[in-house]
Here is the input.
Amino acid sequence: DALVELDAIGAADGVEEWRVAYLGRRGRLTGLLRSLPQLEPEQRREIGSRANQAKNALEEALAKRTREIAQAALASQDALDVTLPGRPVATGRLHPTTQIVREICAAFMGMGFSVVEGPEVELDHYNFEMLNIPAGHPARDMWNSLWVDYVNEEEQQPMLLRTHTSPMQARVMEAQDPPVRVVVPGKCYRYEATDATHEWHFYQVEGLAVAEGITFADLKGTLYEFARRVFGEDRQIRFRCDYFPFVEPGVDMSISNFVDPETGRRPINRDEDWIEIMGAGMVHPRVLQGVGYDPQRYTGFAFGMGPERIGMLKYGIDDIRHFYRNDVRFLRQF
Ligand code: PHE
Here is the structure.
């Protein structure tokens, strides 16, 4: 009876009624199964096994019929309403740091630089020694380092998470003759407390240009042009003297963060007119010598900038720690 009835049902709610009538808590088959304990043992085995077979058969038939009805509903015409708005497809996007790093690299590629990358776990030799920072030099304190608990076997050298991308200056020059014109984007790490403008992990984009006759005017012109390309015509830049052991003379470069007279606001909400975005300078003769370049013949400039700081100034982000907090409400805005 149950199977015949089920076959005749044409809608989902009819199927549910049927289920309650036969398989529900007070259903006919359930009643039968419940009454089993009152039977003689002999009968109980026989009837019990047949009741269970019946139950399996009904459950199977129910599942089949439910599928059939669902399919029929889908196949019937009003299941497809082409006038409904489409469902939005969630798309991913590039991390703001990736976007800024690419934009910086593109600005320099437009000026004839090529892009190279290097290792994040670096030898002491390249991170410091080749950059005119020997062991015990007080300037090592400028980079609080995360040392790796491992000594490179071939070189018998301590290793660390690179504290800047500058080690690539030496690696690039060792691998080729001048002229050199490269930018090097990559992750860096420092053993440091974090605050609104400092992260223990961040990116840098290094730059290096070495050839005959390069002067400090080339450094200023190139970095000025870079700032114009990334920040537009209106923002100002400032160079000040600074010290890095691998350049002479050395400078740092800042971007203006002036109050906008119209809105009364600064690009980033910090009580400072200038935000430092990079260190730079003329490559120190000792660095050139170290890689086998003749410092009498070749000169060059180098720079290392912080893309997160640049992103902060460009987009008005007031805390660098937003970048790596993985909060999609922040990331979605870029
Ligand atoms: N490597 C320096 C730093 O991390 C920046 C720099 C790069 C300065 C190149 C001068 C030249 O602070």
Notes: The mean pLDDT is 91. The two ends are 64 Å apart (CA to CA).
